[in-house]
Amino acid sequence: MRALRYFFNEATESLWRGRRAAIVAVVTIAAGLFVLGLFLVVNTNVQQLVGRWSEAAELSVYLKERATSAEVQAVDDLVSTSGLSASRQYVSKTDAAKRFREDFPDLAVVAGGLDRNPFPASVEVRLTPAARGAGDAVDALAANLG
């Protein structure tokens, strides 16, 4: 027991004698651990953000002003047979204007003051996970839709 007490007394006295060096060492180690932790947090958040972006891969097919229902159906058929779409949704000109007013309330007055609705109808396509890595297939679909 005496040896253990001697050990702690000597350690305490040694730390007190070299307190400046000990403080600098502790601060340096703490700063290094802080930088490492900060880097790991930023890296994890960036990976999650990129993952969410890749999950939200979409393709919007804007339609002509006077697109007929047969043309809209042809676009829908082309997208559905491509095997790249997880879901599709038709967005009318009115719905597009409504979305714009909801998403950009500060600019809603400007869009509302126009003589006609400037937003085109569209078909919004959410891509499948397999299609997200197949850039060539998506490019070919876009070319066919064009």
Describe what this molecule looks like in 3D.
The protein is about 65% helix and about 10% strand. The protein has 7 helices and 3 strands; from the N terminus they run ααβαβααβαα. The longest helix has about 35 residues, at about 20-55.
Strand order of the largest sheet: 1-3-2
Q: Give the termini separation.
A: 87 Å
Strand tally is: 3
Structural class: alpha+beta
Shape designation: elongated
Helix content: 55-70%
Q: Sheet with the most strands?
A: 3 strands, antiparallel
From the alpha-carbon coordinates, what is the Rg to the nearest angstrom? 31 Å
Q: Outline the low-pLDDT stretches.
A: none
Counted by DSSP, the helix tally is 7
Question: How confident is the prediction overall: mean pLDDT?
Answer: 84
Order of helices and strands: HHEHEHHEHH
Beta-strand share of residues: 5-15%
The gist of it:
The protein is α+β, with helices and mostly antiparallel strands. A 3-stranded antiparallel beta sheet has the order 1-3-2.
Primary descriptors:
three-stranded antiparallel sheet; 67% helix; alpha+beta; 7 helices; 146 residues
Question: Helices and strands in order, then pairings?
Answer:
Layout lengths: L1 H16 L1 H37 L2 E5 L6 H14 L2 E7 L1 H11 L4 H5 L9 E6 L1 H4 L2 H11 L1
Antiparallel strand pairs: 1-3, 2-3
